[in-house]
Write a structure and sequence with these properties.
The protein is an alpha/beta fold. The protein is built from ten helices and eleven strands. The chain has helices spanning 7-27, 43-59, 74-86, 105-111, 123-131, 139-150, 170-179, 194-198, 244-247, 262-276; strands spanning 3-4, 33-39, 62-68, 92-95, 159-163, 183-187, 203-206, 224-227, 231-232, 238-239, 253-254. The strands form three sheets. The chain has a six-stranded parallel sheet. The chain has a three-stranded parallel sheet with strand order 3-2-4, sandwiched between helices. It has a two-stranded antiparallel ribbon with strand order 9-10. The structure holds guanine. Guanine is lined by residues 94-97, 119, 139, 168, 265. Guanine binds next to strand 4.
Length: 279
């Protein structure tokens, strides 16, 4: 049986480390506060936003919520972002995605001051990642690197296949694995022979958004499998992009859903918020 990579436990360790750091900074008179903006009432977004605010409270930084109506105009949202950029008491700004269809997400992301962009979505932070410069890194991929490192899984020299090329996960994930000296291949919906390609992976990172798509026939014996997907099944239970029961007997280590990658995203957001306190 494979080793289970326990994201719940590892994220708790990280949050406890951050809690100590925040206490030290407080003793030096440095406070932290994250502004969280949600537009509309998407239920999944509301759950994420609530969990992010709870995590702030846990590590001891402030959070300010801005719950805007679905009908808010792009101009109004941009004006709020500008106001928060200029507010010295706010050191992190997070605009929960997706935004309603009448707004240009790229325009909103680009309006956030890069030094307050704790999601790591601003092109300046993405460019810093590409160039190997310091900057904020997107939380889910950063969390996956922490999961691998804290589980003592070597990355250097390994063949890594990342399935998915989104700006939030697939692209920054590939760059981070490259930074850790893996040999990286990015697969996507137009990739030919996905099964054969995945079979070459020592580390397979799956962010394709298809419930239980990856079964044992895609996985090399002894590989490490990281599942970024999260889906609600008809029976009410959560599952990932990986068919856990099929894959887990064949791998060295695997993340469960829930309790794998998910909790790491918020832990790394808190990591970025603590970084932002001294920028
Ligand atoms: N929507 C889904 N994931 C994320 C995330 O990491 N940050 C933000 N702001 N919105 C999201």
């Amino acid at each position: 049986m494979a080793n289970l990579i326990d994201g719940k436990q590892i994220s708790q360790e990280i949050k406890d480390e951050l809690k100590d750091k925040v206490a030290q900074k407080k003793a030096q008179g440095i406070q932290g506060c994250l502004a969280v903006i949600q537009v509309g009432e998407d239920p999944a977004s509301s759950v994420y936003v609530r969990n992010k605010k709870r995590a702030c409270e846990y590590i001891g930084i402030g959070s300010k919520s801005y719950e805007l109506k679905e009908s808010t105009t792009e101009e109004e949202l941009l004006a709020l972002v500008q106001k928060l950029n200029a507010d010295a008491d706010i050191n992190g700004i997070l605009v929960q995605l997706p935004l309603p269809g009448h707004m240009d997400e790229n325009k909103v992301i680009q309006a956030i001051a890069p030094k307050k962009d704790v999601d790591g979505f601003h092109p300046q932070n993405v460019g810093a990642l590409v160039s190997g410069l310091p900057g904020f890194v997107s939380c889910t991929p950063a969390g996956i690197i922490e999961l691998l490192k804290r589980s003592n899984i070597d990355i250097a020299g390994k063949n890594c296949v990342v399935i998915g090329r989104s700006n939030i996960v697939g692209k920054p994930m590939s760059l981070l694995m490259l930074r850790e000296n893996a040999t990286v291949t990015i697969a996507h919906s137009k990739t030919k022979n996905l099964q054969e390609l995945c079979k070459t992976a020592d580390i397979l990172i799956v962010a394709m958004g298809k419930p239980k798509f990856i079964d044992a026939s895609y996985v090399k014996e002894g590989a490490v499998v990281i599942d970024v997907g999260i889906h609600r099944q008809e029976n009410g239970k959560l599952c990932g992009d990986v068919d856990f029961d099929s894959v887990s007997p064949h791998v060295q280590a695997i993340t469960p859903v829930p309790g794998g990658v998910g909790p790491m995203t918020i832990a790394m957001l808190m990591y970025n918020c603590v970084q932002a306190m001294t920028k």
